[in-house]
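Quick one:
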Amino acid sequence: MTELWNTRWRAGLLIGVTMAAAALLGSLNASEPQAQMTEKFTNLKVLPKDISRDELEKTMHGFTEGLGVHCSYCHVRPQGQQRGEPDWASDAKPEKQTARVMMEMMKRIAGTELAKITTNHQDHVVFSCRTCHRGQARPWQIQDVLATAYRSGGFDSLTSRYEGIRKKYYGTDTYDLGEQMLPDLAETIIGEDSAAASLRFAEYNLKWFPQSGYTYLVIGHAHDALGDKDQAVKDLQHAAELDPKLQEYVQRSLERMKRK
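Output:
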């Protein structure tokens, strides 16, 4: 198995499979004029020293797609120049060294740690830069981003940040923009005892998911905690109507409310 994963590591490396090593080089895509690589490479400390130009370009494409960055993210350009060929061999930018550390980490995981897994599954999961980075240079989860926005500027700051993220990333795998994320976020940020915050977050979520049974479930629990039993019953019943899979859970909630 060690040999299998070592093979997977090298093959994956050549197509950009390292988790955070995508930071090593920037993009060679249409958003930035394509920098021309030389035929002879120097200062290669992790990549094979005999790597071909085609293999290196494939690797770099994989890295940059995983992080959504450009050549200049890790490679310094000559002083005063915004375009043209970067100084590929220079180690002036710390991002380049970070990339090397991450590449070594992935090599160790693939060659040593994964070899310890003894399941009989033949369809091994292939991990890549995008597994963690999902098209962003720093692999933040949306909950982290929104929590930071909330703590710095309150609910308005959070919604502004969320809508910016939604506009830019909706339809991609970069952030979790599913129907349960916002209703659950209040507990993450403020705590499970804040019914008012849960209600506010869930009601805002209806702007994006007006037919979300889960959101009405959270709203119903919030109204119950705030003492509005009649509205809580309506919300919970509506949740079950929208999502029949919630019926059993809704029924237990209603019974618990009666016992109170």
